[in-house]
Amino acid sequence: MQLPDLAIMPGDEIEVPKELREFMLEKAEETFLGQKNGAQKQYRYGNLHIREYGENYLVHTDKIDPRQDPIGHLVYDAPEVLIGLACAIFAGSHTIKKTFNKKSKKSVIASTLTSSIVSGYLGYVATKKIKNYLEKK
């Protein structure tokens, strides 16, 4: 089956009813790459990211196919993941430096994990909101 001409701009997402079963391309590959957002399954076909839900598919294009260039995909399509990881690493390393000689080993591990998780999540959420705001402009 040939890929239909879809004018999907990066960041836009379209809904395709499951009745249009022909839409599911034979060459699309099921993948774990990408956020499922509650989807039952997700597929990739080139730069198309297809999420399967109960009644429909949600489809969007990525600027870069993560199977071809994972780092480029994170930089251009999912910078919130990179920022979240950077915040988590920075907060964790900073917490270890501050508390390493002052507290017990268990306390250091707990405070490092807590600060990493909280900082990573806040960095991710803030970057996602900024990205969504800029895409709507």
Overview of the molecule:
The protein is an alpha+beta fold and 137 residues long. The protein folds into two domains: 13-61, no CATH class; 78-136. The protein has helices spanning 70-76, 79-99, 105-136; strands at residues 13-17, 29-30, 41-45, 48-52, 56-61. A five-stranded antiparallel sheet has the order 1-5-4-3-2, with no helix packed on it. A hairpin with a 2-residue loop joins β3 (41-45) and β4. The chain is elongated and about 65 Å long.
Strand and helix map with partners:
Blueprint: E1 13-17, E2 29-30, E3 41-45, E4 48-52, E5 56-61, H1 70-76, H2 79-99, H3 105-136
Antiparallel strand pairs: 1-5, 2-3, 3-4, 4-5
Descriptive terms for the model:
3 helices; elongated; 5 strands; 137 residues; alpha+beta
Structure summary:
This protein is 44% helix and 17% strand. With 137 residues, the chain is an alpha+beta fold.
